[in-house]
Amino acid sequence: MLKAGHLEYFGMQLTDDQIFLSCATGTAEEGKWAGKAKVSYHVVVNNGMAFPDVRACKKFVQAVFPNGFLDNEVPDGTEPPVDLAPYGSYQSFKTIHQSKTISSDRVAFPLRGGWEQHLVTHFACPPMLYNMERLGDAVKEKVKRDGSTSEGGRGSIAPVHVNRAEQPRWVDPAAVNPHSVADLLRYLPNHIEQPWELFFTVACICVNERVPFRVFDQWCRDSPKYDARQAESTYNGLEPRLVSSPGQPARTIATLRRLVEHCHPRIFEEATNRWVHQCMFPTVDFAELGIKRKSYSSRYVKAFTQPWTCYPHLLLRAHMGTGKTTQAVAAIEELKPSSVLIITPRQTLAASSMGVYKRALPQLIHYQKSPRVDEERFLVCQLESLFRVGRTYEIVILDESESILAQFSSDTVKKFQAVTASFKRVIQTSTRCLWTDAFLADRTISTCLELVGDPAKIRYTENTYQPIRRTAQLVGKGANAKVAINSTLQRLASSGDRNVCVSASRRQLEEAECLVPAPRLFITSQTPDSVKAQLADANTLFTQYDNIGYTGSITVGVNFDVEDHFQNLLIYSSANSANPRDIMQGSMRVRHLQKNMLYYATYPRYLGNVHFDVFNREKLAEIIDGRVEYQRNIKLDDDPLWSQRQGLEPWLRRLWVFNQQERNISAFHHQRVLEKYLELCGYNIEVADVTVDDLVSIMDAVKADGDTPYDAVSTIGYAEWVEALGRVQRGSATQEDKLVTSKYYLDNYMLRPGVQHTPAVMHELFQAILQHPGDIMRKMHNARSEHGTFHGESNVFQDNRQARAQHMREICAMLGVKYSHQVEAVIDSVVMEKTCVQILEKKEALRVAFGLRYQESEQRNGGDVVTKRGLEILNAMLAGWGFTQIKRAAKRKRFMQGGSRKDGSSFEVVAGGSHRKGQRAHNALCIEHLDLHPETDVDASP
Known about the structure:
It is globular, with a radius of gyration of 32 Å. The protein has 5 domains: 6-129, no CATH class; 134-267, no CATH class; 286-463, P-loop containing nucleotide triphosphate hydrolases (Rossmann fold, 3-Layer(aba) Sandwich), CATH 3.40.50.300; 470-610 and 663-701, P-loop containing nucleotide triphosphate hydrolases (Rossmann fold); 772-929, no CATH class. It has an 8-stranded parallel beta sheet with strand order 6-13-7-12-11-8-10-9, with helices on both faces. It has 33 helices and 25 strands. With 942 residues, it is an alpha/beta fold.
């Protein structure tokens, strides 16, 4: 009979006719029961119940049949022995009278229920989960020997159950090191009974993260079921994995963090919040540094002319809309300087600054309109063009200083050495310097102190008044974020509201544009510069439209102050594009909203390989120091700028740490950073309830794909290209200019010569250039740097390309291949093993150069293991370097050596990436049709 109270115990309805029980008796043919009589019971539960693991299933059977399957009485306090072997699929259980073995004795006879009650159609009821705590949102998957999981669902790690201790260990959040497996294991309870899959998962983590066995064994010793031989055999029986294959995620330290966080909720909150806080607020000790500090709360920034005369370098932090620029203009009018330089991070801010500062400086000139920039006494200049400035200035104004300093890490800074030298000179030679930003933090304070040297010359002033009180509503997250924000925009626009949409994705804006009625204006990289120039007078431009959209590139320099025009603000952000600070600055360009409502959607999962999960400033400082040291020790004969890159000044090293910390934390904790900025800017956050019907209807409504056909763009010659390229660089290009220059560059500087390209291929390549130019150009520059034909400037501050190219050349030489993108190359297994030995010997240098994440490991014997470990590191390098990866050949070759079987299969270079996302097909297209070879002439660039 069924156990009484099962409804309360399992949280579900379970009746007698929903359980089928059969019995099979006979003599076992194999295994530990071979030659012995055995009785097996088959239990089928057909109410839709799903068991997450064997332990839960066993517990269920023991609870449903407390007295055994034949209802025999058992002594109180004991449980019937259950040697459970659950079937993972329905096909394993055939018919009630069909034997699963050849033996005629092994036939199952029904003991309870009948087969007619257990047809497949009976499983139509909704599935119910066993009433047990589950960790994370994951799907069940089969675990392989190497600790990976087979492809299924979203390809996530199978759910792992961990029991919490009744009295958990006290945790000091400030002392937890999220980057140490040994430290994290201290907070994963093992002194209580834990399921086997937790033991196996921890073993996989330790092997994958190259943690010594003693660390794993020390954690195992806390268990009451500790078995030294089982712990050692499990650890040694696993093969390490570094890179997660598509659909086969590896168990890594990130998995361990989730397990620990399940046992100690919010254990990492303090560390993560501390890193986020460091990127957004001043955390330095002003008294220790000797910097004067003043704080007040006022609707508008107070005049600072008098303190500016006492402190040459004034640092001002105040929220947007409180009058920072107004007071700067007033100070210039009062001081009447003989020369002024205004540095901006964007061209739009440079253009708008002309209108703002013209009142106090009628002779002020824009750097693009001056024939002799180095002689101008009153100048507005964007950071990238600062190398053209040759004189000293009495007053230097860094409008949006955080954005300016972050711009040093951008690929758009082509002449890095000249720009940084000019920046340092104008700061150190100025009489007075004003650093202002709504989010001014340690980056500005540290850079100013490094360049000035004397803290007595610096004063930090903060106006804490927040003029904005709005509501922010989360309408979508993850895969449905784009659809959710487009659905919200369409709904608001159809109701007659006027809206502003700020997006991290050009594609999302193109889809949104076809959903809203005219008049509308959506500004992307393809928008004519004549329209962008009108942003200097945003009040006139924006009032002509009901719906406005622009990307995160418009962060500063645009101010829309007209009241009673726009009702709502919408934001789409992604961890794989613009950082939250740029998105928030872009959203604050519209100062007034009638409804004071912001709707936002975010894709918080980082999928790239440019940033890495290191957030600690000390660790980042070690990384940049290691890169600089390596760069200093290599001498490249084909690198004419080697002498300029032997070192990196201390202030630039420190600035790199701040920039990389912000990039990493924004990528891996994107939503938290975004919502912290929302709170800082005066928003109260809510979560909206978006239905599935809303998302389906909006997906059906998006008709246009936004593609620009390759054949529809005109083909031009070299002279026309030079003229059009000049207009692009001067900021006066039309949309046609931008398209024809991209097409000309693709045709003449990217396509592989002598290859016939079909219209379909040209269309796909052209779309890739328009939509992902940065990623493709970066990998092409990497290939040309590997050949020694890249003529652009490279440095460890921005990309560390030369050091990585040197590593790639050395590895290719060991493999016997010419280049890393030589897809037709076949590599012998012996050569691969020797190369992997060399890779493992210098893995620390490779980790620093390529930003790989793994920890120190004990050396383990076995050629196959060494090859596998080295190949994983090599493919991790290739993932961020180019278009390829290395894998074993399809035809396997095995042989016996020393009593063990070895894999002698060769290896081959193939296109890298994921099949599921189309990356592999796209990379194969680039390898076949783009010119990655040394004969390429790359003197010209778009």
